[in-house]
Structure formats: C-alpha cells, structure tokens
Amino acid sequence: MNNRTLQGPTPLDAFAHNEDLLKQRELLQQTTLKQLFAEDPDRFNRYSLQAASLFLDYSKNLITEDTFKALINLANDAKLSDGIQALFNGEKVNNTEHRPALHTALRNRGDREIKVDGQDVMPAIKDTLRRMQALTEKVHSGEWLGYTGKPIKHIINIGIGGSFLGPKMVIEGLTPYIKEGIKHHYIANVDPSDAAEVLKQVDPETSLFIIASKSFSTLETKLNAETCRQWLIDQGAKQEDVQKHFLAVSSNVEKAVAFGICEENIYPMWDWVGGRYSLWSAIGMPIALTLGFDNFLALLEGAYAMDEHFRTAPLAENMPVLMGLLGVWYHNYMGAASHAVLPYDKYLGELPNHLQQLDMESNGKSVNKAGETVTYTTGPVIWGDVGTNGQHAYHQLLHQGTALIPVDFVAPVETHNPMGEHHRWLYANALSQSRALMTGKSLDEAKAELLAAGKSETEADQIASHKVHPGNRPSNMLVLPKVTPEVMGALVALYEHKVFVQGHIWQINSFDQWGVELGKQLGDTIYPTLLAGAEAPEFDSSTNALINMFREKND
Ligand SMILES: O=P(O)(O)OC[C@H]1O[C@H](O)[C@H](O)[C@@H](O)[C@@H]1O
Q1: How many Å lie between the centroid of ligand 1 and the Cα of residue 160?
Q2: For the whole prediction, is pTM greater than 0.95?
Q3: What is the ipTM of this complex?
Q4: CA of 373: how far to CAs of 51, 334, 406, 502, in Å?
Q5: What tens digit of pLDDT does each residue of 232-272 get?
Q6: 123 C-alpha vs ligand 1 centroid, how far in Å?
Q7: Rounded to an integer, what distance in angstroms lies between the CA atom of residue 211 and that of residue 246?
C-alpha cells in the first residue's frame, strides 16, 4: 500500500480543538449509547431538530455535550461560517477551475441579487425558468407535436452522471406526481443495451429526446444522441423533423447547434453549476416535463427553504452542519470508511445512487485546495438501498460485522399508498433497525434467549456468542412528513450542504472532479486498438491479452 492510501482514524491535527476530540473519543470508549440514553431523559430533545420540512433525530450518535461542543469548535477552527457565506455569495470556491458553485442561485426564490464577476445571474436564471415553463405547458397541452402531428408521450433523457442521476432520482422519488399519459426514460450508459431497451419501449412519433450535457462532449451522451437521431430517421422521420423531437441542455451552445439542434431548443447551463448540483437548472427539464412545472417550482422552493436554513442558522442548530460534523467525527476520529443511506420509502430508491456521485465525486480527493497531500482520510464510501430489502441481505454486516458504518435512515411518516398495515410495518422496521444497532444484544441476553427456546445449557453456551450484537452503532433518523416535491427539494439540498461542510473541514475542493479524467484518456488510446485490422496493442500484458480476446470475437 503506498502512503497516499490512508486508513482511519486520521485525526485533524491542524485544528486547535483536535485534542478535545481525541479526548472525547477516549471518554466515549468507557460508555455506550444505551447508557447515555439512560442517564439523560432529555437526550432526544437535546439532539433533534427541524429544518425546512425535515426532522432529524441524531440522538443515537456517539456524542455527549462535550463532544458536541468540541465538534462545533472544530467547525469554528475551520471558519465554516465564512465558508458558507463564500458559497452563497458566489465566491470562487471551485479554485482549480476558478469558478463559484452557485447551485443555490438556481433555487433562490427570494429577491437576493447573486453576482458572478460583477453581474447578477438571477435574470438569466429566471428567463430560463420561463422558457422551461413555456415548453412544459406546450407539451402538456398537446400543442407541441411530433412529425406525424401527434402530441408527446415519452420523455427520454440522454445524459450521464450529473445530467442523469439527479433528474432520475427526483422523478422516481415523486412517481405519484407524474402527469397522466407521460412516460419517462433514461439513456445514460454507452452499453448499446441501454439505448436498445429504451428504444424498444418508445414510439418515434410521440417521443421527445433531451440531450443533457453540460459540456456536450461526453462520449456516452454524444454516441447515444447520434444513435437516437438515426433511429428517428430510420423510423420514417425526415432530417428537418429532428427539431420536433430533440432538445438540448448545455453550456456549449456551439456544439449543440453543430449536432443539429436549433438555438431555440437549446436551454442553457452555466459553468458555475457543477454537473452533480445541476438538477435545479434546465438539466431538470425532464422533471418539469414529467411532473409538471408547478411541481418543479415546489422542488426549488423546498431546496430554497433548506438553503436559507443552512445560510442563516447558527452552526449548533444547523442540520447540514450537524450531519457533516457527525460524519467527520466517525470518519476521522473513529475510522469509519463508509456511510450508509437507507431510505425506507420505495420511491426514494435512487437517492443512494445520486448521493454516491454527489458525495464521492465531490469529496473523493487526496490533496487540499493548495494542492498539498492531505494527511487525513476524506470522502467516505456512500452506499445504500431501500429498506426493508437490505435487512434481509447486508444488514447482517451492519449489525455484527467488524466495520463501523454510520447509517442515515430516511423515513416518511405518511405514505402515498396507504394500504392496510404496510406503511406501519415499514416505519416500525426503520425504527427497529436503528434501535437494534444502538442497543445490540449481550452474551447473557443471547444465552437466556436460547435457554428460553429450550436449548440445553451446553448448546446455549456454544451458540450464544454467534448471536451477540455488539450494539453501540450510530445512526441518524431523518423523518420526512411525506415525499412531496418540497420535501424532496429540501432533502437533496440537505445532502448537498452536508457534503460542502465536510469538504470545507477537509480543506478540499468539493467542486472539481479531475479523478474521472485519466480513465477517459486511456479509453481514447484503447478504443482504436479494438478496431478490426488495428495494429497489435503495446500496453501491459494484461491489457494486451484482454484486447485480443475482444478482437477474436469482433474482427
Ligand atoms: O453533463 P456532461 O458534461 O455530459 O457531464 C456528465 C458527467 O460526466 C463527467 O465525466 C463528470 O464526472 C460528471 O461530473 C458529469 O456530471
């Protein structure tokens, strides 16, 4: 293992309050969550808060009042409040690309001016929203017609990464709000099966393709867009009909025009919006087209409410700040290398996928803003899936494995589908998982359970240790009133800001993504060697052999 690969715990020793946190870690080893609850009847009230439409219970975390204070002091050491203001004020927080990161401007529903290089960006944002609204209304009223005069029924997003994951998560998350008669589809992967399977389901006469690409130069998106355009022509449309079936969202208007999209059908993106923060821009067009413009606005409103909370609440009462600091606590002081997000709501199944890009592309960095190698671990591995499915699979490791994995449970108290006892059971499962992680089961309890079930003393002794749950494992419970557009907006904004808080503490640039480049560059050198008749490859023996295996079948 080279010395750039760090494993935790890796305390943040440059900060004045690092020592306090080290001391806290030691003290907490002498107690348990169970004990902390027993000692303090007010623990739930002390460690829970409401922000925008969300409620966070963070009482099942390994903290005491002193830990809490030390974490807030650490945030002050890192000048977090200044960082938050810099983010909102449009300072160039993305220092390697010399840009601000102004996703908050996209959902600024107030009248605050937001300037980039002296120019207020709000008029351009509002103008784009107006254009999105006009298009959405045209499509939904049946005024926008395909090449045979039929209205649009299929919205197909062609995009990848930030131009895919956010819109898909939001639309699936808000399935009950989908407009009648509208179907949504996604083509992201360069795998031909992705496009093939979508094209089998749609009808060329009623399909609207959105080419979503900030750069308009992403290989996968370019190839998929060309394939879809050719498919449309092959199905009987003429070249001039392409305008009726293709839109583009991009900051590269020139390239979109060169592809054949007329300027009127190109919606802007700005370089001060990162791809993984872009669902609030015209990249959210499939959201508006599938759910309606009113619901898109409600999503922005929800995010704005969380923005205002993050921008103005004191650090100790600030939900994204607290979630970010708790992550730092486990990651840098307790050696947690991963973090699970487990939504107890079917519609939120795509949330972990979106958060993987949001968090891991933002904070998977090993140099600080000044380009120096960091001496501490940064972004954790983010993973998860819908509850309760995971309970019958990987929760085994959460309960009895050797790794410390903090969990965020995300659970709405009201369902869109009140059917019998289902939702009550679902919520009960979320609570029982978080409680089981905390309380665990001791050796004595396990043995008593076995004896009560009729096992002999010897058998109980043999099996009991396998049934021990160590417990004392932390989790957050994020309670949503119901998954509505506002709630979804607030939820996603909460995680965006949590990622920002952690990036700020780690002093890294959360808004660039140079790490995705090398693979792309090498792809460009490998692709030509896979062509029929190409010269023998001259890479390492492994790559060469794997190239030859492909060529044997495809030459
Ligand atoms: O929107 P695009 O320019 O097509 O980019 C799509 C995605 O690809 C890149 O490789 C980046 O890793 C992502 O951050 C980005 O969201």
Answers
A1: 6
A2: yes
A3: 0.98
A4: 36, 21, 26, 17
A5: 999 999 999 999 999 999 999 999 999 999 999 999 999 99
A6: 26
A7: 7
